[in-house]
Amino acid sequence: MSTVLSQKHEQLLHDELGDTFDPNIHLNYTPPSALLTMGDLGLGANSTTPIAGSVPFPFLSEEGVCAYRRAMIQPEILSRCAQPYGTGTFILRNLAKHSRFIRDLWTHPETNRIISEVAGAPLTIIMSTEIGHTNIQSAGHTVDDLIRELKVEPRRAPANVVEYEDSDPLHDRPVIPWHYDSYPYVAVVMLSDTTHMIGGETLIKKGDGSAVKVEGPALGYCVVLQGGQVEHLAARASGTTERITTITSYRAAVDGIYDNSYISNVRPYSCLPDLYIEWISYRLEKMKAEIQNMQAKIARLPNSDSASIPLHEMCEFTDQQVAYLTRTVRQMVDPFLCADVRRRFDVRKVNSVGRTWAHIRTQAQFKDLLPAVMALTMEWKPFQLYIADWHYTQHMITSGLSSSICSQQGNFAWCRDRANDFLFGDELLRQGLKEVLLAWLDWSDLLCLDQTHGCGDKSG
Fold first, then answer.
1. Does residue 379 sit in helix, strand or coil?
2. Record's superkingdom (predicted)?
3. Fold of 9-265
4. How high is the pLDDT of residue 163?
5. What pLDDT sits at residue 454?
6. Within its chain, how far is the Cα of 2 from the centroid?
7. Helix, strand, coil fractions of the chain, as percent rounded to 5
8. Is 380 helix (H, G, I), strand (E, B) or coil?
9. What is the C-alpha separation between 359 and 367, in angstroms, rounded?
10. pLDDT of the residue at 277
């Protein structure tokens, strides 16, 4: 009986009242008036397109905004998809699983054409769970508060802004702090009225460390960003009682282009069984396409001319596939370890562990404690896999085989003379293994060197 009721409930969610997506009704696209290139930011172009991002451009019509909000704020969907992300922020995941309208909007060929045109490269959605990821700045503290607070019609009345007049987006608590996205490209759509909004913009870090401001999109407007290559911050907004942005993630739909994706940002707050199944399925599908592409290339070679076999290209191809498959598996961090970290620390502390690590390694006691910590780490089985990765990366640095190191924190150069300064924590951070890094710092008592975290709860 419970199975039948569950199936009926799912059917009700998919047969939601309201709207069937129609691009002629719900889209209102006008190309962006300007594009920001990687060169403009002083960043090296290491992707399929030199476009770093766009200024906001019209994307959804008024009908489209209301239909999207109507699909999103149903109590059944908020109850299943919403969860707090620190004080004053909620996130919604797996909307496409529960809303036909949101799924159909993002997967429609016209939507994909628009996003690809703005990005300057053919794109495809990463996976279903990354359709319509939504960040909500809210006055509520619980999902029930959120259900009562959100309405279909965007709120247009200004909020009290006296306390925000001197706000600084670089130093005040942001909605989402400095970060690289887990995936190469994102499309961010504003679902709130911004007429009276102060702040709420995106700040992008340039190659020289300074920040450039991209004005926040207006209601129904979209911004496309190469977020996997560009470090950025989502500033907190004032002058409004809500700020809702919905985000869909993409990769390049180009054969032979390495898919530089991670799940490190979304893993701390996702349902891991669902995430891991979608992740491994899409990664293997991408790998299968690359292998088939190479098979077709080999089939076109002259049969009688062995010298025509591109051995160097084949070596690069196999190395790339091994690295791709290794990264795929490494991103699937042990669920028991993740559950333990979630129990001890909130999601913001997990996602800010890079700053915690940077602070810890500057402390005077750190160098004295590290040898003993690493001796114990070498013997503890959960970390041995990552120890081997660390040694390999150190070898790549000292041998000079790579001028830059691939990282979830963006590609970076590491001087050969400083190879010994590339520590175990740096390797975990390079791979975006935030839960593993936080668990290691907690387990080793190095976390006690960071006053913002304390020593963690050892009761478990």
1. helix
2. Eukaryota
3. Jelly Rolls (2.60.120)
4. 47
5. 52
6. 35
7. 45, 15, 40
8. coil
9. 13
10. 96
Alpha-carbon span 185 to 251, nearest angstrom: 6
Reduced to 3 states (helix: H, G, I; strand: E, B; else coil), residue 136 is strand
Amino acid residing at 383: F
pLDDT at 455 (0 to 100): 57
- The total number of residues shown for the chain amounts to 460
235 within 8 A of 81, measured Cβ to Cβ? no
Q: Residues 413, 405: contact at Cβ < 8 Å?
A: yes
- pTM for the model stands at 0.86
The whole-number mean pLDDT for each consecutive block of 10 residues of the chain, a chain of 460 residues, reads: 41 56 97 92 77 95 96 92 84 93 98 97 95 88 87 74 51 71 94 83 86 87 92 78 90 85 92 95 94 88 69 89 94 96 91 92 94 93 91 88 75 75 94 96 94 49
How far from 119 is each of 35, 122, 262, 383, CA to CA, in Å?
9, 8, 20, 39
For residue 137, is it left (φ>0), alpha (ψ between -120 and 50) or beta?
beta
**Could you give the count of Cα atoms lying within 13 Å of 429 in the half-sphere of its Cβ?**
20
Angle between helices 272-299 and 335-344 (to 10 degrees): 140
Residue boundaries of the structural domains of the chain: 9-265, 274-330, 335-449
Number of H helices, E strands in the chain: 17, 16
